[in-house]
Amino acid sequence: MTSWLSDIRASYDTVAPSYAAQLRDTLAGKPHLRSLLGLFAELTDGRVADIGCGPGWVTAHLRTLGVDAFGLDLSPAMIAFARSAHTGVPFAVGSMTDLPVPSGSLGGVLAFWSLIHIPDAVLPTVLTHFHRALRPGGVALVGFHSAT
Question: Among 32, 85, 123, 147, which residue has the fewest nearby CB atoms (within 10 Å)?
Fold first, then answer.
């Protein structure tokens, strides 16, 4: 694992409980995000990867919308929290830099607020993995923070 990935993992492992608490009600207070996720759920067909899922709130929400979603995160502590908070929802430790899914196996890829950690030089590799994992007609939804 590269040093920047190790640093990200260590950072999120350190803050997992407080980060999860901070994000707990994110969707409740953001109707636009719930609407966007609802549209994403309607547009996807098949399994969906929530990449950089953190504490799993969005993955669990997608499942309430009928999506066969699973969460993937670099941080084992985040995945441990997600598994304990959302029993029955599949979560795995993994990296978007080496996406551990078969080619053409996903109907959707969701990456909310997680691509911000990827160095510019590595971003094409990550997006190539997303493209490889999506089957024809698959949908990708990527979210970023804004400074407004």
Answer: 147
Q: What is the CATH number of domain 3-143?
A: 3.40.50.150
Q: How do beta strands 48-51 and 91-93 pair?
A: unpaired
Beta strands 106-112 and 91-93 are unpaired
Whether the predicted pLDDT of 148 surpasses 60: no
Rg of the chain over Cα atoms, rounded to whole angstroms, equals: 14
Distance of CA 145 to the CA centre of its chain: 15
Domain limits of the chain? 3-143
Helices (H), 1-148: 3-23, 31-43, 57-64, 76-85, 123-133
Half-sphere exposure of 23 toward its Cβ, with a 13 Å CA cutoff?
A: 20
8 A C-beta contact, residue 96 and residue 118: yes
